[in-house]
Amino acid sequence: MSTCTACTDRDAGDRYLCDRCTTRLADRLAGLPDLYAELSLVPRVTGLAEVVTAAPVEARAPIDLTALDMPGNAAWKLEVRRRDIQRVRWPERSGPEPASLMAHCRWLRMELDWIAAWYPAAAELAAEVRKLEGQALTVVGAPPARAQRLGYCVAVTDDQGTVCGAVLRRYPGEPVRCRWCATEYRTEADLVLLRHYQPSEIA
Ligand SMILES: [Zn+2]
Ligand SMILES: [Zn+2]
Known about the structure:
By secondary structure, the protein is mainly alpha-helical. The chain has two domains: 2-140, no CATH class; 148-202, no CATH class. It contains seven helices and six strands; from the N terminus they run ββααααααββββα. The chain has helices at residues 19-39, 48-53, 61-89, 101-110, 112-118, 122-140, 188-196; strands at residues 2-3, 11-13, 148-152, 167-170, 176-177, 184-185. It has a two-stranded antiparallel ribbon. It has a two-stranded antiparallel ribbon with strand order 3-4. The chain has a two-stranded antiparallel ribbon with strand order 5-6. The chain is globular and about 45 Å long. Bound molecules: zinc ion (ZN) (2 copies).
């Protein structure tokens, strides 16, 4: 029996993260790619040419350029963390190839059970992901309250039985549609199935 290394509050059994911190980390990793995709929709007030030629530039250039760099920085941060996890778990293998933020988030979610149990720096990963979420939210704002979170997409995306697992949200007047795999949940029967197949920790 030991205390969770992330919240330092709840019992984590023989693991590094308690169930609640593990679920929260899974949710954040699921939402991060969409959140960072929204950054590219934030209007650029200042074009690069203006940054170079206009004066004074000090006041506004850092904001726009930082927002533009954020997805790349987030992907890089998670790549560094993923490299460390792979070093602990498979010391004989080479590290990950550079990949998109979405790919890193997906990999981390797939390995989360192992990470929560065996990765000594799991709490650092949880803190990094929470910070990345917070940084993006300061630019795009909190998700609109009208979007209702339904759970995870349960569509099977290949013939290996891989489940999509993206976070699903319902907007009023729109069909429930996965933003990742484009599966639609239109009928009541679809939604019943969706609820039925949710991972047990959030059911
Ligand atoms: Zn915890
Ligand atoms: Zn999906």
